[in-house]
Structures are given as structure tokens and as C-alpha cells.
Amino acid sequence: MILTVRRYGNKGSRYERFEVRSTPGMTVLDALFQARDEQDDSLAFRYSCRGAVCGSCAMLINGVPRLACKTQVSSLLAKEPGPKLARFLKDDSAVMYDGSKEVMVEPLPNMPVLKDLIVDMTEFFSKYQRLNPWLMPREPEPSREYPMSVAAVRELEKFTDCILCGACYGACPVNGENAGYIGPAALAKLYRFRIDPRDALGGSRLKKADAPEGWWACRFYANCYHVCPRSVPPNYAIGKARKELRSEKEAGE
Predict the structure, then answer these.
(1) Which one of 56, 126, 195, 224 has the lowest number of neighbouring Cβ atoms within 10 Å?
(2) Rounded-to-integer distance, Cα 211 and Cα 47, Å
(3) Could you tell me the CATH number of the domain that includes residue 136?
(4) What is the structure's pLDDT at 103?
């Protein structure tokens, strides 16, 4: 198979093709390792756990943000249908590729590229940290633990699986057009703490993103949900937050 990689360096970007031995169960990350170890040790990409839980290896694979460690080469070459996404790339790939024998790998969109497939996630995490994404426990603290209903736990579980890979951020058309938009990952995490019954801030948390670049910037393309490797639904969280904020404003009028 051919692994085509969009590479970035001091001289701009270029596409480079690597001939890779395809093996049963090979992932895109495996293919990248083979290309780096056997053909060009300067090829740069992020990875960590290789178990699809750390989020380090998110990149654009055949035009879709995915985790390289989770994406099977065989499924790509078989042209298994991927998610149907609203257009989010400003420019289509400059290189045509044969999907029956070739895999195209590019860095995540909507973030500056540092080198090859490594993007600068500073802004992504800066927006995330601005929302104070940690639990503020209610007081007084219980003597043993905070009791939670089964329903509350199930609702929380929709959002606790986020691994901050940035796939949703890369796939979001709004992030591509509006640099100030907080983005789906951070908003989903904010909503996660708003609905946590152990949290002391409650509905006041939603105020942190009650601005044009927050909840109200989303246009519900749902790319975020479709590319999430953990099936977290930021669009659902944003819709629920908007509904609550509107209800509060209408009640105060």
C-alpha cells in the first residue's frame, strides 16, 4: 500500500509517498511507524498509549479527523463508508489519491502546524482551561461519598469519555471560520460539570460561555459528534445549554 503524508517544515508543505507493507490488523499509526523507522526517521507525528484513550494521535485520515491508532488500514482500503460530514476544509487536498491502495494522512485542520502531522494545540487547551474544567465540590462535604442517581450517572457518561484529542475542533466548520470560537470539546466539558450533581456552581457554569464565541456560535453541523472516537455529543450539550439559558432569560423578563 501507499501511505501519502502531507509534510510541513521550514520550506512549506509537500506531499510525500511511502510504500508500506500492509499486514493484518495494521493501523494508520503502525503504517506511520513503519515509514518512519524504515524510510525517513525525520517523519514527525504524535502518539502515546496506542490504545485509543489518550487522544494524542488525532489527524486527518482520508479527509476525516480520526485517531491513527484506532483506524484500520484495511477498512480504508476497502473504502468502508466514513461519517457524512458538513464541509469543513477550506481547501481540498492538493493531491489526488487512489483509495483502493493508498491512505492519505494530513495534520488536523484549524490548528497551526508545527511539523509534519504535529499541530500546535496551545489555543485549543487555552480555551478549554478558561472554562475551569474541574469539579467544584458542594459543601459541606458528605461523610462518605456524594450519592448520585443512575439517571445522573448515565447523563454524565455521555460527556466524561472525552479524551481531548481535538478531532471535533478540527472537523468544526465554525472553528475554521471563527478563530474566537471556544469549540465543541471545551463546551461539552463545561456542560459535563454543569450537570454533575456534586458540583457547587450548577447553572452558573453556563455563564462562562454565554457569549457570541461560546454556546451561541455553534451552527449544529454535528461534525463534532460524527468524528468523536468516543461518541461524545457536543452538539447535544450545546443545545441543552442554550435551552437552559433562554429559559432563564425569559423568566427574568
Answers:
(1) 126
(2) 35
(3) 1.10.1060.10
(4) 97
Please, what is the angle between helix 184-194 and helix 234-252, to 10°? 60
Per-residue CA distances from 168 to 128, 171, 172, 188 (Å): 13, 5, 6, 11
pTM over 0.85: yes
Strands 2-9 and 102-106: parallel
The SS3 call for residue 133 is coil
Q: How many domains does the chain have?
A: 2
Residue 94: what pLDDT?
A: 57
Is the pLDDT at 39 greater than 70? The verdict is yes
CA angle in degrees (0–180, nearest 5) for 241-245-247: 120
Torsion sign across C-alpha atoms 152, 157, 160, 162:
negative
- Averaged pLDDT, 50-74: 96
- Structural domain span for residue 237: 121-252
